[in-house]
């Protein structure tokens, strides 16, 4: 493995190439740094998918404003700092999202695995709450929520599926969950706390496996 100073200089040269040739050259930066960045982010998130999301968000910021990285004294260190900040932000958001996400995951599982008779499902109170809440979301938010919670897609995978940037997928997910929390917040009750505890145990098991 090349010494860190050599790699830092390689990153600096790649950033210069992007500054000279435009966005078309950003693929080289991704190929050069993504594996290292994901590895670093995973030490913070303890989750591969969240680490990939953090890297995707940071690199999208770079693409939108390459001058920030170009003007940095050490572009590689600056990029690592960007990824760290996004990884920490994902952790903070996850604590807020997990309560609603756990409840939605349980209900979406029932909605998808049960016989596809909507009227029968909606006769059950908990199903009706979730179903009606999802119907109140804009389509672009609802589809991201379903892909993220039920399919357990990363934002990168959601972006590929829907033809949107990962950052856009993350934004729609955030707004969708905020709206669902507003609609369902007074109805979540103790089921959420039980689901949260179970999710925390699963996360601890995942972290031991890293």
Keywords:
single chain, mainly alpha, Arc Repressor Mutant, subunit A, elongated
SSE diagram, text form:
Elements: H1 4-21, H2 26-45, H3 48-64, H4 66-70, H5 75-113, H6 118-122, H7 125-136, H8 139-149, H9 155-162, H10 166-184, H11 189-209
Helix pairs in contact: 1-2, 2-3, 2-5, 3-5, 5-7, 5-11, 8-10, 9-10
Structure overview:
- The protein is mainly α and 210 residues long.
- It folds into two domains: 4-87, Rna Polymerase Sigma Factor, Chain: A; 89-209, Winged helix-like DNA-binding domain superfamily/Winged helix DNA-binding domain (Arc Repressor Mutant, subunit A, Orthogonal Bundle), CATH 1.10.10.10.
- 83% of the residues lie in helices and 0% in strands.
- It contains eleven helices and no strands.
- α2 packs antiparallel against α3 (48-64), α2 packs across α5 and α5 (75-113) crosses α11.
- It is elongated, with a radius of gyration of 20 Å.
- It starts with a helix and ends with a helix.
- The model is unreliable at 116-123 and 186-210 (pLDDT under 50).
Q: Summed up, what is this model?
A:
83% of the residues lie in helices and 0% in strands. The protein is an all-alpha fold.
N- to C-terminal separation?
22 Å
Binned strand content:
under 5%
Instruction: List the helices and strands in order.
Output: HHHHHHHHHHH
The main sheet comes to: none
* Class inferred from helices and paired strands: mainly alpha
Molecular shape: elongated
> In DSSP terms, counting alpha (H) and pi (I) runs of 4 or more, how many helices?
11
User: Can you give the mean pLDDT?
Assistant: 75
The quaternary organization reads as single chain
CATH architecture of the largest domain: Orthogonal Bundle
Rg calculated over all Cα atoms: 20 Å
- Superfamily at the CATH H level of the largest domain? Winged helix-like DNA-binding domain superfamily/Winged helix DNA-binding domain
The CATH class of the largest domain turns out to be Mainly Alpha
